[in-house]
Amino acid sequence: MEELDVPQMKREVESLQRQLGMGREKASVTVTELVKWVEGGYCEDPFLNPELMRANPWVEKSKCVIL
Amino acid sequence: MAAEKAEMDKLKKECDALRTQIEAARKAVNDGSMSASAGGVAGLGRIQLKLRKNLKGHLAKIYAMHWSADSRQMVSASQDGKLLIWDTFTGNKLVAVPLKSAWVMSVAFAPSGNLVASGGLDNICTVYNIKAASPKTLRELDAHTGYLSCCRFLSDTEILTASGDTTCCLWDLETGKQKTVFTNHIGDCMSLALSPDMNTFISGACDSLAKLWDLREGACKQTFSGHTSDINAIAFFQNGHAIITGSDDCSCKMYDLRSDQEVITYQDPSLNAGVTSVALSNSGRLIFAGYDDFNCHIWDSLKGEKIGVLSGHDNRVSCTGVPNDGMGVCTGSWDSFLKLWN
């Protein structure tokens, strides 16, 4: 881990001031919205929607055909 | 000498005060939790995936892999000194790119599919045109003073790199020059990921911090702490609002960008191996994390539980990736094989 010199420390102070200034939203809202968004994505997620996995690109096509 | 030390002390005090204020600002919005928000979410049970393909071809440790945007081709990098481009539907190797330096640590596929990039202990990011009759070196991006740990294309004309020299860099491929240098980490940068809207990116470093950067302004917007060792892997949720990190401290963490905090830690007392790589399923519900214990473990991102494992490699899992269509997951290992699972 490198030691900073004076100019780098000054930039770190400026950076921290900028980072402090961001608008933080309430976690009760943002985390709930994140959960909703994840749940809304299940139908498009092949790991969670078996219908999508039917057309599995990594499985050998069957050699037998039902006539 | 004394004056400089006095100024340093003053600046250090300012930094400490600002960090304390940032922690206070985080606490002020920490009125929720994942267990509260995900309380009503149904558990998934055990996830069991099948090994669909075992891709053999490399002759030494695989260090990196990256899916093409077409979800069919994939590029892998090995310290046997080659990049291999695979057609994962057939298992065939399409292109072999011989490397000038065998000590490769990262590889990337351009979204267009026309270019791949790699780099490592040579400190250089080399970009290759793989659509030419034989792979042609397009650019050698040579300005980092430390190893290249990660690279990602924004397009055929811009690429982002992360380096052991503690900086990340945005390059213009038309001129071969650096556009922006992102300086703020105090340890080797190990990993980066682009936000879905391409306005920001995140980096993980050996200073155990993850940082969110504004791509165009070059400034660090947010810093996420909590890990107690190197962050080796990092990924965005596809809505751009949360990130997952993987660390040598044997845990993964989720950070929520909007409330600027750590939301959940994924760790298990039986897991005493560092995390090398992370990838998310398309909805973000599943985290695929590669570990030094030769396995890729599957975590339920909302419940914080380990719900599956991909076993089969004979050495450390060094890289993991889910293609854009989300149809499966690829693991690459020091055992020289790549495995496809779904």
Give a verbal description of the structure.
The complex is a heterodimer of chains A (67) and B (342). Chain A has a domain at 26-56. Helix content of chain A is 43%, strand content 0%. Chain A contains two helices and no strands. The longest helix of chain A is centred in the first third of the chain and has 15 residues, at 6-20. Chain A starts with 5 loop residues before the first helix and ends in a 27-residue tail after the last helix. In chain B, strand 18 (231-236) and strand 19 form a beta hairpin. Chain B is mainly beta. In chain B, the strands form seven sheets. A four-stranded antiparallel sheet of chain B has the order 1-28-27-26, with no helix packed on it. In chain B, strands 2-3-4-5 form a four-stranded antiparallel sheet, with no helix packed on it. In chain B, strands 6-7-8-9 form a four-stranded antiparallel sheet, with no helix packed on it. Chain B has two domains: 1-29; 49-341, Methylamine Dehydrogenase, Chain H. The model of chain B has no long low-confidence stretch (mean pLDDT 97). The N and C termini of chain B lie far apart (62 Å). Chains A and B meet through helix 1 and helix 2 of A and helix 1, helix 2 and strand 17 of B.
